[in-house]
Design goal:
Blueprint (H helix, E strand, L loop, with lengths): L4 H5 L15 H10 L12 H11 L5 E4 L6 E4 L16 E7 L4 H11 L3 E4 L2 E4 L2 E5 L6 H12 L4 E5 L3 H11 L5 E5 L4 H11 L2 E4 L4 H13 L5 E4 L5 H16 L10 E4 H5 L3 H13 L4 E4 L4 H14 L12 E5 L7 E5 L3 H14 L3 E5 L7 H6 L5 H12 L7 E4 L7 H7 L4 E4 L7 H10 L4
Parallel strand pairs: 3-6, 3-12, 6-7, 7-8, 8-9, 9-10, 10-11, 11-12, 14-15, 14-16, 16-17
Antiparallel strand pairs: 1-2, 4-5, 13-15
């Protein structure tokens, strides 16, 4: 059971040195108990105290790392059931499934499609992060290893869906450096699979016929010393899978049962079969409740755009606005004489507006104001994006850097034009369209009229 602040305080050095960033050791202890700080932040904590406290103060769900290099991902580490309580920590990762039962050309075509979804949204790269390589019934080791090699060539982190111990050994020989997940342990083979995974230094996936069997198998693996696990909560039906995944998370976080305190794999591909629409719906469900790895039958832009948008919204801290740093952002080779466009620091606004400005091809200095990470109309209504705040920012941060005195403001706050002209003498204030998608035409018209 997690310790409270007083219990942690008793083991601190009680120096009140402030080197941890807290004014007192008691304040530090309270933050550690809340999960806001790690014990390692105290430079004077004895090793004995660290050893005794580390397990008790660790998150109820373990953080498990899979993959290697640029493709290393952290799964788990969650501390709350609902993101409004605090925040979710490790975002869901998506895998595309291939199987030895597929024809060679079909498997190769699906693997070739893996790299096609790759785009940036609000500063985050969106792509298929994993490939789930399933070993079909009766497949030989040679056939499975060949498919694993092809999947590894995509550069994605692999999840090996194989229960045969010898085939698992052969597959890991060709891909263990990429730190895949070996998803093949169950009640019948967990001891052998655990040895294979441990020898290869990879994470072991565990499944069970029901939650009781899964629990007993995980407990046996922990007793043997293997705690580098993920839990495959996929059941025979959608209803069973949903119940399994939620119950595992609730047991770990609410009941503090650390036997179930591991990330989960949900194989939507198995549940939806060939229904891509059902797969998309289920992927959305298990992104919210509570898949750490969600396996899909395929992924194209029609699947990715809504799914990754949902994930990005879900795995942001609700207590922190998504914002970019205020300042001057030159676009399309802009210099100090290029025209100026200004808007707020809300990240979505920045990336939408900057994308359209870059598409216009016109050299532009995009000036981002400090508006508290709020959208244009919200920040205007809150008084954070006003003529006074804009004028102050331009006088302090812009006028000394740029010579151009033409400023384009968002169309939704056209009401600020008169005040800005009075507060910034010598500046020409131009009102942009209300929607970012109209900016390209707006600048083309300005060019045609000789206004740039």
């Amino acid at each position: 059971m997690a310790l409270n602040g007083i219990q942690i305080f008793k083991l601190t050095p009680k120096k009140n040195c402030k080197e941890c960033g807290c004014p007192t050791c008691m304040a530090f202890s309270m933050k550690v108990a809340q999960g806001a700080l790690e014990l390692s932040k105290c430079p004077y904590m004895s090793q004995e105290a660290l050893d005794s406290l580390s397990e008790a103060t660790a998150p109820p769900m373990k953080s498990i790392k899979v993959g290697a290099g640029d493709n290393e991902y952290t799964l788990g580490g969650e501390t709350v059931l609902y993101r409004h309580e605090k925040t979710f920590v490790s975002k869901t990762r998506y895998a595309v499934s291939v199987c030895t039962d597929m024809a060679d050309d079909a498997a190769e075509a699906k693997l070739a499609e893996v790299s096609k979804v790759d785009y940036e949204r609000i500063g985050e790269q969106m792509k298929v992060e994993m490939v789930y390589v399933n070993c079909g019934s009766g497949a030989s080791a040679d056939k499975y290893v060949e498919l694993v090699k092809k999947a590894a060539a995509t550069g994605r982190t692999l999840v090996l869906g194989v229960k045969d111990v010898e085939i698992a050994k052969a597959a890991l020989e060709v891909c263990k450096d990429g730190k895949p997940v070996l998803n093949g342990a169950d009640a019948s083979n967990y001891a052998e699979m655990s040895k294979v995974a441990t020898d290869a230094g990879v994470v072991l996936g565990v499944s069970g016929a029901n939650l009781d069997e899964l629990y007993d198998t995980v407990a046996a693996l922990e007793k043997s010393g293997n705690k580098n696990l993920v839990l495959d909560t996929t059941g025979a039906t959608i209803k069973e899978t949903f119940a399994n995944t939620v119950e595992v998370r609730r047991a770990a976080l609410k009941n503090e049962d650390r036997t179930f305190g591991y990330p989960s794999i949900v194989n939507v591909s198995r549940l939806a079969r060939d229904d891509r629409h059902m797969a998309q719906a289920l992927a959305s469900v298990f992104t919210m409740k509570y898949g750490s790895i969600v396996v899909l039958p395929g992924m194209d832009y029609a699947d990715a755009l809504p799914l990754y948008g949902l994930r990005q919204n879900l795995f942001t801290d609700p207590q922190k606005p998504m914002k970019v740093a205020p300042g001057v952002y030159p676009l399309n080779g802009a210099d100090e004489n290029s025209i100026i466009v200004t808007t707020v620091d809300f990240a979505l606004t920045y990336f939408v507006v900057s994308g359209e400005l870059e598409r216009s091809g016109v050299p532009i200095n995009l000036v981002i104001n400090d508006a508290g990470g709020l959208s244009v109309l919200t920040s205007w209504a809150a008084g954070k994006f006003s003529s006074g705040s804009i004028a102050k920012f331009f006088k302090e941060e812009v006028e000394g850097k740029l010579k151009c005195r033409k400023m384009i403001i968002p169309g939704k706050v056209a009401v600020l034009k008169g005040d800005l002209e009075s507060k910034l003498p010598g500046w020409e204030i131009i009102v942009a369209p209300r929607e970012a998608v109209e900016l390209v035409k707006f600048f083309k018209d300005m060019q045609a009229n000789g206004e740039l």
